Amino acid sequence: xxxxxVTLFPSLPPEAxxxxxxxxxxxxxxxxxxxxxxxxxxxxxxLKRALADSSxxxxxxxxxxxRLGELVVVEGLASPGEVTRALELxxxxxxxxxxxxxxxxxVLDAQAVRHLLAQHLGIPAVDLARFPIDPGASSxxxxxxxxxxxxxxxxxxxxxxxxxxxxxxxxxxxxxxxFTAKRPVQFVIATATDxxxxxxxxxxxxxxLDTAVMAAASVQDSDGDPEAPVDxxxxxxxxxxxxxxLVNSIIKQAVHRRASDVxxxxxxxxxxxxxxxxxxxxxxRTLSRQLLAPVVARIKVMTRxxxxxxxxxxxxxxxxxxxxxxVDLRVSVIPTVNGESVVIRILDAEVALKSLDQVxxxxxxxxxxxxxxxxxxxxxxVTGPTGSGKTTTLYAALREVLARQITVMSVENPVEYHxxxxxxxxxxxxxxxxxxxxxxxxxRHDPDAxxxxxxxxxETAEVSLEAAMTGHLVLSxxxxxxxTAAIPRLIDMGVAPYLIASTISGVVAQRxxxxxxxxxxxxxxxxxxxxxxxGVGPHERFARGFGCDRCSGxxxxxxxxxxxxxxxxxxxxxxxxxxxxxxxxxxxxxxGGMVPLPSRVLAMARERRTSLAEAFRIRIS
Length: 621
Hints:
alpha/beta, 7-stranded mixed β-sheet, 19 strands, 38% helix
C-alpha cells in the first residue's frame, strides 16, 4: 500500500509537547532510565521536536568513539566496581560487547544501554509500538536490508528520511540505510522488540508462515467457525489448529504484500503457492501434497462451500480481519487432474475504493468525466480486459454520483465492495435473477442512477440503454480493447445504432501499467520489433527495473492507470447512426480531443516511469 511522504506541521501546538520533556539541566538529580522512558517519541509532532533538538548537536562521526563504561558511571547507572568486573569478563570473552555483559550481569537493562548510547550520539528515541509509520517511507529500503541491519524507515521530514535502528553505534547499519535510500538520512533509536514487530507489520512475517507450514505438516485439521470473520492477527503460537494457522498466515502475507490474488495450484510433485502482485505471479513457496486436502477443506469451511464435494467447481466468499482492516475474499475452487486448484481474490476496500481524483486521470479529463456524471441521463461506459481496473474506476464514479444525494442502485455479479448510500443487488443465475431481469425490476424503484456491473448480452445492453434514454444515469463496463471498439461491440449485440448515438455520453478504455522499481532501475535493451511497432527512434533510450528485494524480483513496484477518454461529440453521434467503421470512429474521436492510450503509455516509458516492454505488452493492436 503506497502513500505520500509525511509532511509535518511547521509549528506545534502547546499540547503536542505534553508528556515529552526536555532533559533537566541538573542531570544528577534525575535517574537517566526514568528520564528516557518519558523521552520516546510517540507521534510525528514529538519526533519533529526531538529531531530539531538534536540537529544542532555534533554528528555521530564527530563525537568520536563511545566509552560506555565512563558513560554509565557518570550517569549513575553503574558503579566503577561493576564496570571493572564487566571489563574483566570482556578480556576473557573479547567477542562480547561491554553493554551486553553489563546486561547479562544484571547491572543494566538493554533499553537503558541503547538509550544512553543514543543520547551520547545525539539520536532521538521513538516508541514504535505507537508511532505511525509512513508506508511510502518504509518502502524506500528493501525488506532484506531492513531485517538484516535491524533498521526501518519511518517517515520523510524536509526531504530527509528518518530511519529507526536498534544499535546507534552500528556503522554498517547506518551506511546500508544511506546507500539504499539514496537520500539524506537521519537516525532515531528503537528497542529490538518494537522494531521486530514493526518490521512484521510493514512487510509481513515469513516466520509466521514457516511456523504454520511446519505445524500443519504434522497435523491435518479443518475445523473452524464458518460464520464469524477470520481474525488474521490471532496468535500463531496460540490455540488455533495448525491448518487454520497455515491458511490464515497465507492470507495475511498476501494482504501485507499488496497481492490481488492467492493461487494454490497442485502439481504432480507438490502444491505451488503464488501471489499475484501488480499483475505478476510471484512464487511464494511449495507445500507438500499432503497439505492440499486439509488446506482446501479449511478454505471451503471459511467460504461456506460444500467441503465434501471434490469433483465440481465451487465459488464462495469470506471476510477476514487484519487488525483494524476488514478484507473480503472471493474464492474459486476447481478440480484438476492433480487435485483441487484454488484462487482467492483479495478485495481490500482501503486500496480499491478511491475518489475520482485518486484514480489517475489528468485534470482536464477528470473535469470532462465529472461533467458526464453530473447529467440526469445518459450512459458512461468503462472498457478494458479483465484486471484493467474497471471496477475501481466504476466505484470511484459511483462515489462521485452519490455525493449529489440522489437514489442509486446497482446490479453486480457479485457485489465486490459494499458502499453506504446505495442499494446493491447480486445476480443469481441459478434462480433466474440475471442482469436484465434485475434491471427491469430496478426501474420500477425509480432510481436516479443505475450501475450495471457488466454488459455481456443483447438483452442487458438494450435494457441499460433504454434506461439511459428514459431519464436515468447509467454506468457500466464492457470487455473491449479500445474506447471506439465499444460502439461496434454494442451493434454486434443487436442494439440499434440510433439508441447508442442518443444515449452514450462517453467511453473510458483503460489498462493498469506497471511502474519501474526505482531501486533496481537500469538501461533497457529494446528490440527492433518494439521500436518499429511503437514508432520509437533508434537512438531513444529507455529504462526498466531488473528485480531486487524491494520489488520481490519483478522489476516493478505498483501500477498506474493509463486510459483514453472518448466524449461523445456531434460528429461521432452522426457517424454512429450512419454505421461508420472503426477507423472512421477513431479519427473522429481523436479530432474530438481523445488522447489515445498507446501515446500515454509511450510518454510514460520515455519518462522512465515504466519500461518500453510494458508499453509494448499493453498496446492496443
